[in-house]
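Q: I have 312 residues here and want to know how they pack in 3D. Can you give me a structure?
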Amino acid sequence: MTTHVPDLPALRLLVGVARHGSIGAAAREAGVTQQAASERLRAVEAQVGLTLLQRGARGSRLTAAGVVLVEWAGQLLEVADELDTAIEGLRAERGRDLNVHASMTVAETLLPRWLVLLRQRQVAGGLRPTAVSLTATNSQQVAQAVREGSAHLGFVEGLTAPAQLRSAKIADDDLVLVAPPGSPLTRRRTAITPEEISELALTSREAGSGTRQVVEAALDRHRLAMAAPSVELTTATAVREAVRAGSAPAFLSRRVVERDLAAGQLAEVPTTGLMLRRTFRAVWVGSATPAAGPVRDLVAIARGAHSTSLAG
């Protein structure tokens, strides 16, 4: 990373000045002295090579460059907060308030944001934030953990809801076939057929993952089966990085690869005749309504983020 990027505490301090209109108020919020905050902000300006603040007797206001940097910093800090919350969940020990198991795609792309929103909502309501233990695994193992009671709540992906569990539909998700830019498949003028796909040795998720189940089911409708994978990996991120490095094509969630496609780091290979849409679901045991408390709150946040409805 470029050395022009300040560290996160420095960026939080700058955002605090933008919010409060003074270095003193931002310093109090950050728990440092005004002198320390002022020195830190001057160091930030020196690091980025720009004047970010216009200081005056009545306070400080952002320069044009400062406004732009604060906007970018706000996005970075939001992602950092999501990452911190997710890491805390992964580090958490058993016996915490809420044990959540999630499929890899949900854990990588959606759940961190939901956990941040849960914490924010609880703090705003004067409640003690729930300590969350998060396990990221494939959908089959998520469902099993919920059935056995080792997880209070699960998030899975697939065509149908797991048996013996209650569920709520969260969102639909489309799989796309991606390949390294410039590879032979990306130069085709016609969409690739199910028969051709069944002959490809793909970069694939492991058996039991929601992504692989959708591809297998889509081929099965044509009485076809997947060829033996070129390589099997256990996370969507690992599959994406392998394809970016030149591995065989792979089916991945559009959510996972949309930035790579936009940046030209991966290329989409059009397909035809395959049903590649799946559903993300929250799953739990018991009554049709999730248990009151953090389980119900987290399901409501996930559903609200995608405007979906409960299913049996």
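Q: Anything worth noting?
A: The first helix runs from residue 8 to 20. The radius of gyration is 23 Å.
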